[in-house]
Structures are given as C-alpha cells and as structure tokens.
Amino acid sequence: MKRMLVVLAAGLLSSSLVAAPAWAADAVTDSLVPDIATAQQVAAFWLGDGGANLRNATPYNVQTVVVGERVPTAGVPADGKSGYIAPLAPSTSGPPNVKTPVASGKVFFVDADGRPHWCTGTAVHSAYRNLVATAGHCVYDIQGNATTLDKWVFVPGYSAGTTPWGLYVGKQASTHYDFRTYTDHDRNYAFVNVYSGVVSSPSGELTDLGRLGDNVGGQGLAFNLTAGTSVDVFGYPAGPHPDGKQPYTGETIESSSGPTFGMRITNLPADQIIGVDSRFTGEGSLGSSWLSSYDKRAHLGYLNGITTSVSDTDGNLRYDTSVSPYFDGQLRAVYGTASGIWTGSIV
Q1: Considering only CA atoms, which of 29, 48, 31, 49 is closest in space to residue 40?
Q2: Considering the entire predicted model, what is its pTM?
Q3: CA–CA dist 159, 137 (Å, integer)
Q4: What are the Cα distances from residue 323, in Å, to 188, 258, 346?
Q5: Do 48 and 200 contact (CB within 8 A), yes or no?
Q6: What is the pLDDT of residue 7?
Q7: Domains and CATH numbers, the chain
Q8: Which residues pair with 322 in a beta bridge?
Q9: What's the pLDDT tens digit per position in 209-264?
Q10: How far apart are CA 308 and CA 120, in angstroms?
C-alpha cells in the first residue's frame, strides 16, 4: 500500500521515534524489555525446566494465509536504485556438516493468549552484530491491545528443542510507521536488536556467549531488486495444507528456491507484495528468510524477502506460494535505524 500521507505534530510518538537520519523518518522503535533484570527473567522463562517452554511452544497462526494471484513483473514497485549491504561471516567456526544457514532460527514469544509460540527469524548484519529480521506480526501484536508480543527471544540454528548457539533476548524492535499504526501489510517486517546470547547452567545461572553476529554471522540485505530474482527460502514450516496433509514438523529448518514475481492480494490491505514458488505451509514459516545470491558453502546471502503469509494460488488445496512485502528504500530506512542500536549483555 502506498505511503499514507500523515501530518505529525511535534512530539507525536516521541516515545517510539529514535535519533536517525532524515531518510529514516518512517522508522519507529519500541522497547521489548524495560531493563536487564526483566531480560534475565525472560531468558529464565525459556531456558528453565530444561527448555520446556521452547519445546512446548506452538507455531504462530495469525494471518498465515492470503488469497492471491500473480501479476506482471512491471507491478513490482521499486522506489530507487538497487542496493546491497554485505553479509557477515561468523567469527567462530561451526560444525563442518552444517548444510543450512545457522543465522536462521526460531523467534519465540508469548501472545495475548498467554501461551508460547514461535515464528522463523534470521540474523542480519548490523553495526553491533545484534540484529534479527522477521515478519512484523511476529513482533507486533496485531490482534490484541499490546504494542509488542511478550518475552521475545531468538534461537539461531534451532533444531529439535536445542539451542546450539544460545538464546538471545530481544531488547528493541523497529518497524515501519505504517505497519505500527495501520497494520499495512506492505510494511509487514520488523528488525529486533537482541542482547548477547546466553545459556543456562544446571543451577540456573546464565552464562554469556557473546554477540549474535560473532557467533552465527548475519545475512546481508538487498533492496529494489527486479522481479525474477532467484531466492532461497529458509524457514520452519509446520502446519498442514488445506487438504490436511502435513509434510513438515517444524523441528528442523527447511528450504525451497525459485524466482520472485509480483502478487495481487485480495484479502489484505497491501499492493506492494511479491511471491515465490514454495510448498511451505503457513504456520511456522512466518518470518522465513528469502536470500538472493545465496552461497551454499558460506551459507550467506542477501535478505530480499520475509514470508508473511502463504497462498494456494491454483486452488488444489496445497499451498504453492510464499508472499513477502517488496523490499524497497523504505525498508532500507527501517533497517538503517535498527542497525545502529546497541544492546550489550544481560549477564
């Protein structure tokens, strides 16, 4: 949806706006925890009792399915020249047999129902190596009265209940003003700055593991690319297809690939949406990363889309398309604001 023209009085949203360049005026930020003591409590909630809340969390199922169709590639609305921000290789070496990006993982949170849920997220290169990208509605509560979802954390490389690279508590969330205010799905993306990672000892004490980017690296960013760009999609699909078949468990990361194309969505306020051929089911895959120029050996690429819904475009009762907001200069502006936010350690 094209940018809504809104005249803001001085001081409006002063609690959300951060110091940023003029081109970042559409970015708003919100605190996820008020202080380090609360962040420690969040970590204990997820790591306590052997990680029971991580294992018992269910895939988020809010706004997972849309009705959509392909449109000519000319419908993809670039607002400037193509641009790139380079990916970041991890400072530490990981297991040699890893076949998928460890920068991908699950984001966990508690919804208005008071229960633990999860989406997919991915680490992105930033100034302080502490940034996670995911769908906007996997950070902001679009159903309840709260601004953000509660007890938000990121677990990179998540696999079958494990936290191989530790757990990272979210400190600050950034999104576009139009999503924060109007739930404009053209801007359904969010960047979260996380504290340094932690693990829990048998006695319950937290141990600091260092910065997210140092441990797992971070994907780059690409914006204003043309339709037809080939992307690799990584996520944790878990839900069933409309025909009831459930090919994924959500316990391990899955991948698909294909070229992007323009989409027309009929049941959401959005007109700047792209799609990619993918058999991912909706629940669990929300927030999946779309990586252009993906290097299979380095497991790094350029984030150029984030799954916000899936669609059955041919009506055969099987999801065949993942959809994402188009990454343009306004997304780059939101990223620019989030990239400069420092976090630190909770230990």
Answers
A1: 48
A2: 0.92
A3: 23
A4: 11, 12, 36
A5: yes
A6: 27
A7: 24-93+101-339 (2.40.10.120)
A8: 276, 310
A9: 999 999 999 999 999 999 899 999 999 999 999 999 999 999 999 999 999 999 99
A10: 10
